[in-house]
Amino acid sequence: MLAESREPERWHLRGVPTGPGLDKRTEILAATHLGFDIRATQRTPTKFHGAVSRRRFGDLALVDCASSPWLGSHARSLLGDESEAIFGFQSVRKGVELVRESGREVTLTAGDIVLWDGWQPTEVEVVEPFLKRTLIFPRDRVLSVCPRLADVDALPPLGKSAPARLLARYVDALAVELPALDEAAATAAADAALELLRGAVEPSVPSTRAAKREALRANVRRYVREQLQDPALCPESIARAHAISVRALHALFEDSGESVAGLVRHERLRRCLEDLERPSGGSVTEIAFRWGFRDAAHFSRVFKREFGLTPSEARYAAMARIDKESGAAALDSRERLL
């Protein structure tokens, strides 16, 4: 099944009078980034130009943005709008942008990289027509791998560190390759981007006891995802890999709402569901054994308990959906030819 990112969403403003142009720009930013109160500056032209394209993959979004100069402010909603629960990894390709937040002002020019927080009140001024590329992450996903970010008042500067440059190059490669990725590959690409962001950000964030605890939980979750195919994966092996006792491992997850065994089971079932929804995933038994289940009957029972249907029913539903989408695409193609 092709990924949702096959065709990007696009918004264009070409020579629109300043007033309506800024109003439309406000709507586009709210839909693709964050809500901003936008106004003109002395540099804003009488005819406004702007363009945005967005391509979704996994639970991330890759957004390219170009615009004439403007000035805008973003204030966190008192209602805690879910659309603000995001982080943005931004690289500037062209132009000049001033960002004012937490009592500091940062000037961004071509080649600069910055991480921004949708919960942080911010003022942005586009000084020269700019072009930027932003990878937008759900806030909870970022905090799952960089938990210490939740404890800081200002995000760490990325500067031009090697890990940040590596992620920027990876984002550029994504922009080229995403149209050819199927859904599973796009999800893997999103996971890889998250790991690269962790490598770029985490070393610069100060530690607290609570943050260290959450960071260890994040490491355990990551280890579990990497070792799912090992049938011997269990609390004992996980504790041994992290040089802690089994008792300490269970205590680590006491206040998280999940158990270690439950974490392993959930991740295995999620991977099994992904393979069941792929035409080339293999038989139900092959998939169960591939992801660490030792007994097919037990796998079927826990799968139905988790998802409300048997593995065979999940596969049938996925194949029916793919056939329906393929038929709709073929019909659309025939209609265009006519």
Per-chain topology:
Blueprint: E1 9-17, H1 18-32, E2 37-39, E3 47-57, E4 60-67, E5 70-74, E6 86-101, E7 104-109, E8 113-117, E9 122-138, H2 139-145, H3 162-177, H4 183-201, H5 209-226, H6 235-241, H7 246-252, H8 260-276, H9 284-290, H10 296-307, H11 311-337
Antiparallel strand pairs: 1-3, 2-5, 3-4, 4-9, 5-9, 6-7, 6-8, 6-9
Helix pairs in contact: 3-4, 6-7
Explain how this protein is built:
- The protein has helices at residues 18-32, 139-145, 162-177, 183-201, 209-226, 235-241, 246-252, 260-276, 284-290, 296-307, 311-337; strands at 9-17, 37-39, 47-57, 60-67, 70-74, 86-101, 104-109, 113-117, 122-138.
- A hairpin with a 2-residue loop joins strand 3 (47-57) and strand 4 (60-67).
- Strands 1, 2, 3, 4, 5, 6, 7, 8 and 9 form a nine-stranded antiparallel β-sheet that branches.
- It is globular.
- It has two domains: 4-204, Jelly Rolls; 209-322, Arc Repressor Mutant, subunit A.
- The protein contains eleven helices and nine strands.
- The two termini are 26 Å apart.
- It has 338 residues and is of the alpha+beta class.
